[in-house]
Amino acid sequence: MCAVFDPPEPRRVPPGEYPVWDQALALVNRDLAVTLPQLEPLQLLALPSCDADEPENVYVAMANGEWHGNCLDPSSQDGPASALASVADAAQETVMELLWQAWPLCPEHGLGMHPMEDAQERLFWWCAGERLRRGPAHVHAAVGALDALGTSIRARS
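The chain above was modelled as a monomer; its predicted structure follows.
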């Protein structure tokens, strides 16, 4: 006879439980609000680990509780830069897979941008599109600053 396995229910993570990830998600949600204003903010969702000795798995999910991709790396909570990189990657994967579209888009090229960290551990949305007389790729804006006015700067290799 087989035992019925009830998968654990995900739970919405309340604000303040993972403060570094909360701060990172707030920045990513600023970019989401500017680029996809019809969507409600993303949220953190947790599932118990399969191993009782391991921490719970935390995901970046849509407002309705759906998510896609891997959980956030628990070690990314060690600092704001790694937390932002982890949350931005997870948010991008969730949004793109569930909406079936690239996100965020470079307004200059219409291409999907990717998070890229510079030598000072700042995270930017990077576009692979060519720019006239200024190189093949560029940084568009810092993660969390897609609403800021200004010009894009060239990515440094």
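Confidence is low (pLDDT under 50) at residues 149-157.
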